[in-house]
Amino acid sequence: MLALRIAIGAGLSKRLPYCWVASRWNSTNHYDIRLKKNKFNDQQSELQTQLLDASLLYVPEYGWTKTALMNGAESLGWTSMSHGICKRGPIELVEHFIQTSTAQLSEELKSHPDFLDLKTTARIKRLVSIRLMMTSPYIDKWPQALSLMGLPQNAPNTVKQLAELVDEIWFLAGDQSIDLNWYSKRMLLAGVYTSTELFMTTDKSTDFQDTFAFLDRRLGDVGTIGRGISEVSNMLTYGTSQVTSILKSKGIRPPF
Amino acid sequence: MVLTRWRRVTSILNGRRLFSQEVKKTHFGFQEVNEDEKESLVRQVFKSVANNYDTMNDLMSVGVHRLWKDELISQISPSHNTKLLDVAGGTGDIAFRFMESVKKQYGSEMESSVRIIDINPDMLNVGRERQKQFGYKAIEFEEGNAENLNTVEDESIDVYTIAFGIRNCTHIDRVISEAYRVLKPGGRFTCLEFSHVENPLIRSVYDLHSFYAIPAIGGLVANDRDSYQYLVESIRKFPTQQNFANMIRDAGFRTVGDGYENLTFGVAAIHTGYKV
User: Fold this and answer.
1) Does the model's ipTM exceed the 0.85 cut?
2) Across the interface, do A81 and B185 touch by the CB < 8 Å criterion?
3) For residue B72, which of B95, B103, B44, B49 has the smallest C-alpha distance?
4) pLDDT tens per residue, range B22-61
5) Given an 8 Å threshold on Cβ–Cβ distance, is B76 in contact with A84?
6) Which residues pair with A233 in a beta bridge?
């Protein structure tokens, strides 16, 4: 898996033409592979997907509620009581939305031909912006979704989906790290993304300009922190190797 | 000697029809009876238990049956214009909970309604008495057979429930096909029924309770040990959770996940199918 990730990451260099890279993305869509294997997703049957897709259209009006599910069912020609197909209720709508948005990220990139010319931070910014615009039709009702996601029975799934989202964004941005930076990058992006999305729920500016300015500031902060973290980790690695060599010179061989 | 020969002849005649095939048999608890007899035997059982039905339910299941029925209604999650058909729902437990749920959500009965169909008039009378206490108006009680719902039109019902009734029916597949016929597209078929306990430890306790405690309580409280013996045996004869879910799919319903959920380790199970 790691080797595959490196190989695909290496393919995302500036030297390769965009269409070749895009077809690579299509055939080995990282997230598609995971969508099929993900146990959480296996449980969503065709029936549920049908109902959830139809119900998302009613969310801007009715919120993330049973009423949206009932209207979705009726739009498919079914009686409103078939909302029971989604056993856990409106949280399934939220989870379905997040899942499909994450899966759509790579598709959306096709309409951004200048993506490969950007540097890493700019790529992250572009991807986060694309993802935030997917939430924008539902942004009025998004606080309700956040409260559903925060419930203790739903929180584990929420965390998992957020992890998948940041992983997908870093993958598409061309992350090739094979050390602890892999984790720190994703954790920092998770913080940036969630704070920006939360800001967006109160943003009334045209075209969410304030949100994108907020995003810029957060990414700026993170750049500083990111460098700081890698410096600390370098220092620790160096310090550890010094201690190990001293011990070895005394005849003590550490187990690591 | 003539008498014993006559007894032999009648026993042969009872078992078989002359010049035709053997009469079809089915199970009535652990006994075997003719198919056409089972319906009247079941009717007799429920006639004798009707008056004490609710009390006996509480005693036998230590009140847990109330939780099961509450769970059933919360899963169905009714809305303001749901039409429920409750089959074999004589005393009205499911119907009253349904209306209560609608009232709690919307403040009044709105346009939801329930039709209760039961084969046994005594059970229906108990239900009618309880309705007077509760005061719900949109509940109708009708006598009818689950295998042949001739008073219900095609595609006229949103939700079909049958709680603790389907194991008493002679032809379960006919009941399920009738349910399929009367449900609207997208309609929900839900069956709450006793089922099989997989865990061997719990099963041993459950068997002790079923075969020793329940008939004894039936004999003491309702003065009718045999009916409760039948009830307990009929549970053992019912198909397993997976087999029943397959029967539901065979009738044309589509299920989500396994198609069933166990309650109390499998003592009861809720099977659900959607007509989509």
Assistant:
1) no
2) no
3) B95
4) 678 888 888 888 888 888 888 888 887 777 788 888 888 8
5) yes
6) none
